[in-house]
Amino acid sequence: MRIKTYSSDLSAKSWQVIKNILPVKRKSKWDLSEIVNAIFYLTKNGCVWRDIPGEFPPWQTVYWYYRQWVKDGTWDNINRLLIANNRMMEDKEWQPTTAIIDSQTTKNTSTSTENIGVDGGKLIKGRKRFYVVDTLGNLLDSFVVPANSYDGTTAIKHWKRIYSENELLENIQCIYADGTFGGTFRRQMKTKYEIEVEIPIIPIAQKGKVEIHEKRWIVERTIAWTLNNRRCSKDYERKTENANAYMIIANIMRLAKKI
Fold first, then answer.
1. Considering only CA atoms, which of 257, 25, 248 is closest in space to residue 143?
2. What confidence tier does 25 reach under pLDDT thresholds 50, 70, 90?
3. CB 177 within 8 A of CB 154
4. Is the predicted pLDDT of residue 214 greater than 70, yes or no?
5. How confident is the model at residue 53, as a pLDDT?
6. CA of 244: how far to CAs of 27, 30, 96, 125, 144, in Å?
7. Burial 95-132 (b: 16+ CB within 10 A, else e)
């Protein structure tokens, strides 16, 4: 048992909730909670796999579990369960009816070399992260694409997949978005899914040159929460599925602290 603790560590109560979701049947010499804590440590502090502190299990073991849980959807399952629990704790239905969508362009690094583009509007080379959140700021779903992808057409292309795979999206009736989602996305969401897309124009508040629009500030806050984790401050991942996984893990870490 290690002596040193880290701010990213799971509490005993949080671990009791999460461990029941993990699809691990075989016996291991390593404590499963320590493997999860090592993944959380890496996500928050942004180190490379080989530099995970020695008091955790070997980095090869930790990485093996991380990759298995990316492939089999375990991180998604944990995230969705914690969101459902969090919503019920806040006296809301576990399935939201309102969502907010937005994208964030992030710079790539020397290790993120696949699926890269240039965002012509922001003049940033890298990838674009899409966030779909509820009114509490919980990350309902997400995906990562090259930065030269247009918001509206990319979002509608991916919506069919995430809508069919994610039970948290089944009752969505309204989505708040900015103007880049006002064309194809808005029309097809109405005709294909009977979901209204609201694009607030009049700001509800203003701080300096920053205008705050109804509901849209919620997704901006979620983006800020994600960027608090150094592994997410830039895109360090070769594969977009890994880049997306760290967004989900960041949300899991935040919700786990609320249990």
1. 248
2. low
3. no
4. yes
5. 94
6. 29, 26, 22, 17, 6
7. bbebbbbbbbbbebeeebeebebebeeeebebbbbbbb
pLDDT at 202: 73
In order, the DSSP letters of 30-56 are S-HHHHHHHHHHHHHH---GGGS-TTS
Average pLDDT of the chain is 93
Q: Read off the DSSP letter of residue 108.
A: B
Residues 182-203 pLDDT 10s: 989 999 999 999 999 999 887 7
Nearest to 206 by CA among 196, 197, 217: 217
User: 246 in helix, strand or coil?
Assistant: helix
Pairwise CA distance, residues 77 & 22, whole Å: 9
Residues 6+ apart with CB under 8 A from 29: none
Crossing angle for the helix pair 59-71 and 240-256, nearest 10 degrees? Answer: 100
Amino acid at 100: I
Selected residue with higher pLDDT from 210 and 3: 3
- Record the tokens describing residue 175, joined without a space: 């989505």
Return the SS3 of 249: helix
Which residues are within 8 A (CB) of 195 and not within 5 positions of it... i.e. 6 or more apart? 172, 173, 174, 175, 189
Q: Token digits for 223?
A: 């983006």
Q: What is the pLDDT of residues 219-228, one digit of tens each?
A: 999 999 999 9
Angle 253-109-59 (CA atoms, 0-180°, nearest 5)? 50
Both tokens of 229, joined, read 């984790």
- 184 is written with which tokens? 């194809």
